[in-house]
Amino acid sequence: MALSGFDIDAPRWDQSTFMGRIKHFFNITDSRTALLPDSRLDEAKVLVESCRAGSIPPGTTEEQLFYAKKLYDSAFHPDTGDRMNLIGRMSFQVPGGMAITGAMLQFYRSVPAVVFWQWVNQSFNALANYTNRNGASPITSKQIGVAYFTATSTALITAVGLNLYTKKAPPLVARWVPFAAVASANCVNIPMMRQQEILNGIAVTDENGNKLGHSRKAAAKGITQVVISRVTMAAPGMIILPIIMQRLEKYRFMQKITFLHCPLQVMMVGMFLVFMVPAACSLFPQQCSIAVSKLEPELRESIASKYGDKIQCVYFNKGL
Description:
The chain is mainly alpha-helical. The protein folds into 2 domains: 18-75, no CATH class; 90-203 and 214-288, no CATH class. It contains 13 helices and 4 strands. A two-stranded antiparallel ribbon has the order 1-2. Helix 1 (18-28) crosses helix 12, helix 4 (93-106) packs antiparallel against helix 5 and helix 5 packs parallel to helix 8. 37% of the residues are buried.
């Protein structure tokens, strides 16, 4: 098949539909890509950039190009093109998330264990949030430190406070404390880690990618959608799994293998995350849009003065 003129950046699936987006994110959140060496990822980047430049190596197949784009999308930041750290990639969310979440759900009774695993989880989340931020909005080391401290403190206060408050509550309620802590911390962690976007605005473009300015309202919309996605990602495993474990632990055979409860929860969390990571990422388009009429007055007037009413919507990368 002739590949001259092949557009490697053309979406393989329709990104305007949920099913199209979920196919896309199942592709790029494939945990197997996290096992590949950096040299293989760099090879994929070279092939993608060669294709963009119109120079496809002889003998390259369409499937090789699609696979190279899959590796590129899974490991390189969409704004900067830099290789992302392994732990922060969405392809690492399943193995990393299942281990940490499984431990949080297992060791929910002991305050020291709650403190330790909530700290580990927020460290993991902070790195993921920083890695998947909008690359056009830099953040200082001090801001990163403040964001990390604030989110971790929120998670610990929520988890320890609820843990103590639910001592006399039904056992199932206590099992849901980790989710309450994770959800509340996400509402702090993500906005704090991306505070520069809220303070200074996020770069917005027209449909052809031409930069039009920066918008704080666009940033607020994008970050809100990311918070919803992250909470949704964790919710099924952290809400349904405690119900399952509560019922299983009533059986005698489960009472004899308490040492396997943690590995069992880790495995079951993984089963939830395999589906929930791509599903949650697919809730909203990554290339988000907002009507010009909803932008700040000064930006709205700037666009109108240059383009009249030709531009009705602007676009931006909301991050993941």
